[in-house]
Specification:
The chain is of the alpha/beta class. 42% of the residues lie in helices and 20% in strands.
Protein backbone atom coordinates (compact mmCIF):
# COMPACT_ATOMS: atom_id res chain seq x y z
CA UNK A 1 0.00 0.00 0.00
CA UNK A 2 1.46 3.37 -1.02
CA UNK A 3 1.78 6.27 1.39
CA UNK A 4 -1.13 8.22 -0.14
CA UNK A 5 -3.51 5.26 0.28
CA UNK A 6 -2.42 4.83 3.94
CA UNK A 7 -3.12 8.51 4.63
CA UNK A 8 -6.56 8.26 3.01
CA UNK A 9 -7.36 5.17 5.10
CA UNK A 10 -6.34 6.92 8.32
CA UNK A 11 -8.52 9.92 7.49
CA UNK A 12 -11.54 7.59 7.22
CA UNK A 13 -11.08 6.39 10.81
CA UNK A 14 -14.08 7.54 12.85
CA UNK A 15 -14.66 4.70 15.33
CA UNK A 16 -12.33 2.71 17.58
CA UNK A 17 -13.06 -0.45 15.57
CA UNK A 18 -11.55 1.25 12.50
CA UNK A 19 -8.09 1.39 14.09
CA UNK A 20 -5.56 -1.21 12.89
CA UNK A 21 -5.37 -4.24 15.18
CA UNK A 22 -8.51 -3.28 17.12
CA UNK A 23 -11.30 -5.81 16.77
CA UNK A 24 -14.69 -5.92 18.45
CA UNK A 25 -13.45 -7.54 21.69
CA UNK A 26 -10.44 -5.21 21.95
CA UNK A 27 -12.68 -2.20 21.33
CA UNK A 28 -15.00 -3.32 24.15
CA UNK A 29 -12.03 -3.62 26.53
CA UNK A 30 -10.84 -0.14 25.59
CA UNK A 31 -14.30 1.34 26.09
CA UNK A 32 -14.66 -0.34 29.48
CA UNK A 33 -11.35 1.25 30.48
CA UNK A 34 -12.59 4.71 29.43
CA UNK A 35 -10.92 4.90 26.00
CA UNK A 36 -14.13 5.33 24.03
CA UNK A 37 -13.08 7.94 21.45
CA UNK A 38 -10.33 8.29 18.88
CA UNK A 39 -9.03 11.33 20.78
CA UNK A 40 -8.78 9.46 24.10
CA UNK A 41 -6.66 6.78 22.41
CA UNK A 42 -4.51 9.35 20.61
CA UNK A 43 -3.51 11.12 23.83
CA UNK A 44 -3.24 8.12 26.19
CA UNK A 45 0.10 6.63 27.30
CA UNK A 46 0.89 3.61 25.08
CA UNK A 47 1.65 1.36 28.06
CA UNK A 48 -1.80 2.05 29.56
CA UNK A 49 -3.50 1.28 26.24
CA UNK A 50 -1.63 -2.00 26.01
CA UNK A 51 -2.53 -2.96 29.56
CA UNK A 52 -6.21 -2.03 29.19
CA UNK A 53 -6.74 -3.80 25.86
CA UNK A 54 -4.44 -6.81 26.11
CA UNK A 55 -2.67 -5.71 22.92
CA UNK A 56 1.09 -5.89 22.61
CA UNK A 57 2.94 -2.60 22.96
CA UNK A 58 3.79 -2.69 19.25
CA UNK A 59 0.12 -3.16 18.27
CA UNK A 60 -1.01 -0.47 20.68
CA UNK A 61 1.60 1.91 19.23
CA UNK A 62 0.40 1.20 15.69
CA UNK A 63 -3.23 1.86 16.66
CA UNK A 64 -2.26 5.04 18.47
CA UNK A 65 -0.28 6.40 15.52
CA UNK A 66 -3.31 5.83 13.30
CA UNK A 67 -5.54 7.60 15.85
CA UNK A 68 -3.19 10.59 15.98
CA UNK A 69 -3.02 10.83 12.21
CA UNK A 70 -6.81 10.62 12.00
CA UNK A 71 -7.12 13.50 14.48
CA UNK A 72 -4.52 15.52 12.58
CA UNK A 73 -2.43 16.10 15.70
CA UNK A 74 0.65 17.44 13.97
CA UNK A 75 1.94 21.01 13.76
CA UNK A 76 -0.51 23.86 13.24
CA UNK A 77 0.08 27.55 12.60
CA UNK A 78 -0.27 30.23 15.23
CA UNK A 79 -3.33 31.54 13.38
CA UNK A 80 -5.00 28.13 13.63
CA UNK A 81 -4.15 27.98 17.32
CA UNK A 82 -5.87 31.33 17.87
CA UNK A 83 -9.04 29.85 16.36
CA UNK A 84 -8.71 26.72 18.50
CA UNK A 85 -8.36 28.77 21.69
CA UNK A 86 -11.68 30.46 20.96
CA UNK A 87 -13.27 27.30 22.40
CA UNK A 88 -11.84 28.16 25.83
CA UNK A 89 -14.47 29.34 28.30
CA UNK A 90 -14.19 30.97 31.72
CA UNK A 91 -15.93 30.66 35.09
CA UNK A 92 -16.39 33.74 37.24
CA UNK A 93 -15.00 33.76 40.78
CA UNK A 94 -17.77 36.08 41.97
CA UNK A 95 -15.40 39.06 42.13
CA UNK A 96 -14.77 41.32 39.14
CA UNK A 97 -11.26 42.24 40.23
CA UNK A 98 -10.44 38.55 40.85
CA UNK A 99 -11.74 37.68 37.38
CA UNK A 100 -9.68 40.50 35.86
CA UNK A 101 -6.57 39.17 37.62
CA UNK A 102 -7.14 35.79 35.88
CA UNK A 103 -7.95 37.23 32.48
CA UNK A 104 -11.70 36.77 32.83
CA UNK A 105 -12.04 33.89 35.30
CA UNK A 106 -10.97 30.28 35.72
CA UNK A 107 -10.11 28.88 32.26
CA UNK A 108 -11.22 25.60 30.75
CA UNK A 109 -8.60 23.29 29.16
CA UNK A 110 -6.15 24.08 31.95
CA UNK A 111 -5.25 23.55 35.61
CA UNK A 112 -5.61 26.44 38.06
CA UNK A 113 -3.93 25.93 41.43
CA UNK A 114 -4.41 27.99 44.57
CA UNK A 115 -2.18 27.57 47.60
CA UNK A 116 -1.97 29.22 50.98
CA UNK A 117 -2.23 28.69 54.72
CA UNK A 118 -5.38 27.33 56.37
CA UNK A 119 -8.18 29.89 56.38
CA UNK A 120 -6.81 31.77 53.38
CA UNK A 121 -9.89 31.00 51.24
CA UNK A 122 -8.86 28.06 49.03
CA UNK A 123 -11.86 25.86 49.84
CA UNK A 124 -14.21 28.85 49.90
CA UNK A 125 -13.17 29.65 46.34
CA UNK A 126 -13.70 25.99 45.41
CA UNK A 127 -17.29 26.01 46.68
CA UNK A 128 -17.91 29.38 45.05
CA UNK A 129 -16.77 28.02 41.68
CA UNK A 130 -18.99 24.95 42.16
CA UNK A 131 -21.92 27.39 42.19
CA UNK A 132 -20.84 29.85 39.50
CA UNK A 133 -19.97 27.06 37.04
CA UNK A 134 -23.68 26.22 36.91
CA UNK A 135 -24.80 29.78 36.15
CA UNK A 136 -25.83 30.75 32.60
CA UNK A 137 -23.02 31.94 30.35
CA UNK A 138 -24.34 35.48 30.42
CA UNK A 139 -23.78 35.49 34.19
CA UNK A 140 -20.21 34.18 33.98
CA UNK A 141 -20.92 30.45 34.22
CA UNK A 142 -20.87 27.48 31.86
CA UNK A 143 -24.34 26.08 32.66
CA UNK A 144 -22.61 22.76 33.35
CA UNK A 145 -22.28 20.38 36.31
CA UNK A 146 -19.37 19.96 38.74
CA UNK A 147 -17.24 17.07 40.04
CA UNK A 148 -15.80 17.68 43.51
CA UNK A 149 -13.03 15.37 44.83
CA UNK A 150 -12.72 15.98 48.57
CA UNK A 151 -9.57 14.69 50.27
CA UNK A 152 -9.77 16.69 53.53
CA UNK A 153 -13.49 16.52 54.34
CA UNK A 154 -13.87 20.25 53.63
CA UNK A 155 -16.91 20.22 51.34
CA UNK A 156 -19.95 21.52 53.20
CA UNK A 157 -23.42 21.53 51.60
CA UNK A 158 -24.49 23.95 54.34
CA UNK A 159 -21.99 26.51 53.03
CA UNK A 160 -23.21 26.00 49.46
CA UNK A 161 -26.78 26.54 50.73
CA UNK A 162 -25.76 29.73 52.55
CA UNK A 163 -24.04 31.18 49.49
CA UNK A 164 -26.99 30.33 47.22
CA UNK A 165 -29.65 31.74 49.54
CA UNK A 166 -27.76 35.02 49.91
CA UNK A 167 -27.45 35.26 46.13
CA UNK A 168 -31.09 34.38 45.38
CA UNK A 169 -30.24 30.99 43.86
CA UNK A 170 -32.08 27.72 44.53
CA UNK A 171 -29.60 25.69 46.67
CA UNK A 172 -31.34 22.34 46.03
CA UNK A 173 -30.89 22.72 42.30
CA UNK A 174 -27.24 23.70 42.70
CA UNK A 175 -26.44 20.82 45.08
CA UNK A 176 -28.14 18.30 42.78
CA UNK A 177 -25.63 19.22 40.06
CA UNK A 178 -22.50 18.81 42.22
CA UNK A 179 -21.18 15.24 42.34
CA UNK A 180 -18.98 14.82 45.43
CA UNK A 181 -16.55 11.96 46.12
CA UNK A 182 -14.44 11.59 49.25
CA UNK A 183 -10.94 10.26 48.50
CA UNK A 184 -9.28 8.26 51.29
CA UNK A 185 -5.92 7.39 49.72
CA UNK A 186 -3.80 8.82 46.91
CA UNK A 187 -4.60 5.76 44.77
CA UNK A 188 -8.31 6.33 45.40
CA UNK A 189 -7.86 9.98 44.43
CA UNK A 190 -6.16 8.98 41.16
CA UNK A 191 -8.89 6.41 40.45
CA UNK A 192 -11.60 9.05 40.83
CA UNK A 193 -9.86 11.24 38.24
CA UNK A 194 -9.57 8.25 35.90
CA UNK A 195 -13.35 7.80 36.21
CA UNK A 196 -14.13 11.28 34.85
CA UNK A 197 -14.64 9.88 31.35
CA UNK A 198 -16.95 7.19 32.71
CA UNK A 199 -19.08 9.71 34.62
CA UNK A 200 -19.40 11.98 31.59
CA UNK A 201 -20.19 9.17 29.13
CA UNK A 202 -22.32 6.77 31.16
CA UNK A 203 -24.29 9.36 33.09
CA UNK A 204 -24.41 11.81 30.19
CA UNK A 205 -23.31 14.60 32.52
CA UNK A 206 -22.27 17.91 31.03
CA UNK A 207 -19.33 18.55 33.33
CA UNK A 208 -17.67 21.95 33.22
CA UNK A 209 -15.46 21.93 36.31
CA UNK A 210 -13.43 19.38 38.29
CA UNK A 211 -12.29 20.42 41.77
CA UNK A 212 -9.65 18.59 43.82
CA UNK A 213 -9.50 19.89 47.41
CA UNK A 214 -6.76 19.34 48.31
CA UNK A 215 -4.45 17.88 45.68
CA UNK A 216 -1.41 17.08 47.84
CA UNK A 217 -2.93 16.21 51.22
CA UNK A 218 -3.01 12.41 50.76
CA UNK A 219 0.28 12.27 48.83
CA UNK A 220 1.93 14.25 51.60
CA UNK A 221 0.68 11.96 54.38
CA UNK A 222 1.44 8.66 52.60
CA UNK A 223 4.90 9.52 51.24
CA UNK A 224 6.89 10.96 54.13
CA UNK A 225 10.64 11.49 54.00
CA UNK A 226 13.12 11.93 51.18
CA UNK A 227 13.31 8.20 50.53
CA UNK A 228 9.79 8.15 49.10
CA UNK A 229 10.01 11.48 47.25
CA UNK A 230 10.81 9.98 43.82
CA UNK A 231 7.85 7.56 43.94
CA UNK A 232 5.52 10.30 45.13
CA UNK A 233 6.52 12.70 42.37
CA UNK A 234 6.14 10.01 39.68
CA UNK A 235 2.59 9.27 40.86
CA UNK A 236 1.82 12.97 41.12
CA UNK A 237 3.09 13.56 37.59
CA UNK A 238 0.83 10.80 36.25
CA UNK A 239 -2.11 12.19 38.23
CA UNK A 240 -1.63 15.71 36.87
CA UNK A 241 -1.38 14.44 33.30
CA UNK A 242 -4.68 12.58 33.78
CA UNK A 243 -6.30 15.82 34.93
CA UNK A 244 -4.87 17.73 31.96
CA UNK A 245 -6.04 15.07 29.48
CA UNK A 246 -9.57 15.31 30.92
CA UNK A 247 -9.44 19.10 30.62
CA UNK A 248 -8.35 18.95 26.98
CA UNK A 249 -10.72 16.16 25.98
CA UNK A 250 -13.90 17.58 27.53
CA UNK A 251 -13.07 21.31 27.61
CA UNK A 252 -13.11 21.26 31.43
CA UNK A 253 -11.78 23.73 33.96
CA UNK A 254 -9.60 22.09 36.62
CA UNK A 255 -9.29 23.85 40.00
CA UNK A 256 -6.99 22.33 42.63
CA UNK A 257 -6.07 23.56 46.09
CA UNK A 258 -2.66 22.97 47.60
CA UNK A 259 -1.01 23.07 51.01
CA UNK A 260 2.08 25.06 51.93
CA UNK A 261 5.20 24.72 54.02
CA UNK A 262 7.74 27.13 55.48
CA UNK A 263 11.19 27.29 53.97
CA UNK A 264 13.64 27.54 56.92
CA UNK A 265 16.36 28.88 54.61
CA UNK A 266 14.43 32.13 54.11
CA UNK A 267 15.39 34.70 56.74
CA UNK A 268 13.84 37.75 55.05
CA UNK A 269 10.54 37.93 53.21
CA UNK A 270 7.78 35.35 53.05
CA UNK A 271 9.03 31.80 53.81
CA UNK A 272 5.77 30.18 52.67
CA UNK A 273 5.94 28.02 49.56
CA UNK A 274 3.66 25.51 47.87
CA UNK A 275 4.39 21.81 48.21
CA UNK A 276 4.52 19.44 45.25
CA UNK A 277 7.80 20.67 43.84
CA UNK A 278 8.56 21.61 40.25
CA UNK A 279 6.28 18.92 38.80
CA UNK A 280 3.18 20.63 40.17
CA UNK A 281 4.58 24.06 39.38
CA UNK A 282 5.04 23.18 35.71
CA UNK A 283 1.69 21.36 35.40
CA UNK A 284 -0.42 24.27 36.71
CA UNK A 285 -1.08 26.91 34.07
CA UNK A 286 -2.27 29.39 36.70
CA UNK A 287 -0.87 29.54 40.26
CA UNK A 288 -2.61 31.74 42.82
CA UNK A 289 -1.17 32.47 46.24
CA UNK A 290 -3.91 33.26 48.79
CA UNK A 291 -3.24 34.82 52.17
CA UNK A 292 -5.06 36.61 54.96
CA UNK A 293 -5.08 40.39 54.84
CA UNK A 294 -6.06 43.12 57.27
CA UNK A 295 -9.55 43.45 58.77
CA UNK A 296 -10.61 39.99 57.69
CA UNK A 297 -9.90 40.58 54.01
CA UNK A 298 -8.05 38.12 51.76
CA UNK A 299 -5.26 38.76 49.24
CA UNK A 300 -4.91 36.84 45.97
CA UNK A 301 -1.64 37.03 44.06
CA UNK A 302 -1.23 35.59 40.57
CA UNK A 303 2.20 33.98 40.82
CA UNK A 304 2.41 32.28 37.42
CA UNK A 305 0.54 32.32 34.13
CA UNK A 306 1.47 31.54 30.50
CA UNK A 307 0.40 34.98 29.29
CA UNK A 308 -0.81 37.17 32.17
CA UNK A 309 1.42 39.46 34.27
CA UNK A 310 1.84 38.95 37.99
CA UNK A 311 -0.68 40.90 39.98
CA UNK A 312 -2.45 41.15 43.31
CA UNK A 313 -6.01 41.94 44.39
CA UNK A 314 -7.96 42.10 47.65
CA UNK A 315 -11.27 40.28 48.09
CA UNK A 316 -13.76 39.44 50.81
CA UNK A 317 -15.32 36.17 51.96
CA UNK A 318 -18.90 36.78 53.10
CA UNK A 319 -22.21 34.95 53.38
CA UNK A 320 -22.46 35.34 49.59
CA UNK A 321 -19.07 33.70 49.06
CA UNK A 322 -16.31 35.51 47.15
CA UNK A 323 -16.97 39.24 46.79
CA UNK A 324 -15.26 42.53 46.04
CA UNK A 325 -13.32 44.00 48.93
Amino acid sequence: MVKKEIEEEEKNISEIDDLPGVGEMTADKLKDAGYDTIMSIAVAPTSELSEASGMSVASATKAQIAARNAMDMGFITGTELVEKRKNIERITTGSESFDELLGGGIETQGITESYGEFGSGKSQLAMMLAITCQLPKKDGGLNRDVLFIDTENTFRPERITQMCENRGIDPKKILSRIMVARAYTSDHQMLLVDKIDEVINKHEKKIGLVIVDSLMSLFRSEYAGRGTLAVRQQKLNRHLHSLQRAADKHNLAIYVTNQVQSNPAIFFGNPTKAIGGHILGHASQFRIYLRKGKAGKRVARLVDSPYLPEGEIIFNITEKGIEEA
